[in-house]
Amino acid sequence: MALIPFTTPPIGVDFDEEAEDQDEFHIDKLATDFTNAEESIRHNVYLESDDEDEERDRSGAARRGCGIVRGDGSMYKRQSFYNGIAFKECVLDYALASGWKCMWKVYAASLQNDSMFWITLYTNKHICVPNGECEMFRVPVIARLFLDKIREEPEYYMPLKMEQTIMEKWKISVTRGQCQAARRKALGWIELEYDTQFERLRDCGAEILEANQGSVVEIDTVKNDAGHDVFKRFYVCFDVLRRTWKKSCRPLIGVDGCFLKEKIKGQLLVALGRDANNAIYPIAWCVVQVENTYNWSWLVNRLKIDLELGDGDGYIMVSDRQKLDHRQLIVIIV
Length: 334
Hints:
Blueprint: E1 2-7, H1 24-33, H2 38-42, H3 52-57, H4 60-64, E2 80-81, H5 84-98, E3 105-110, E4 117-122, H6 139-145, H7 147-152, H8 159-170, H9 176-199, H10 201-211, E5 216-223, E6 229-237, H11 239-248, E7 252-259, E8 267-274, E9 280-288, H12 293-306, E10 316-318, H13 325-328, H14 330-333
Domain MULE transposase: 253-304
């Protein structure tokens, strides 16, 4: 099976499968040159559209994005896609949903005056019997399918579980080695995401301030020996949460912290309240490198300013008060 998105066909030429005599050598060369790059498989960026007709034309994979849940497998002539990645995802969905594995061909084109990809040639004729094999199921594709699941439950989705899931869901046979390689690749992508997200931390803070007027975001960094900025701590207090807490919640603030796992490490410190239904109400949170008196004092002082607590009269702050003595100081700081 060959899937070939190609661009810039001759101006004024219509692609009609009945009238157009394709050069087989040219087609095979395009199929050979076309590769499924790992970066494309990992990053599916689908632009949002205000056109309801275009939105309906988008494939199920484009709407759902990443994860093991796929599209409905529908494919038809003149179907439109926002880019070549969306087209490849639709072809994969079709192969998974139909079970056909024979050497059928589908073509998509992007005209010069149109940024959309369109299926220009598609013949729904198959001569094979599903046999549990699929050439599209390469290691990057398997990693792409299980990326979200491995991110959520890395200890559960081991190679054996991945192999069983593929067989149960799509009746496709893959090797244990393929699943092992796919899991390693997915874990590598997840680890790379941490670095990418940290590079955009200031952008994230700016977006929060732009989308939530009146909120407070503070990002502290320190210089390392090479002169580069290194993360120190990150604080967020949404304005709507702050105003709602002051207006309708009890004058009670609970503070606690927990460890952050995986690659980043550090500590998540949170300030929580109680609403009228006695349910937990988030007020503010911050991420710090280590839980100590200095960082707790910094968080409490930020709360004093943002929540306008003044000298603390009429407010109660509680902590777990376990073995760490510095937590006992929290009540005194306010």
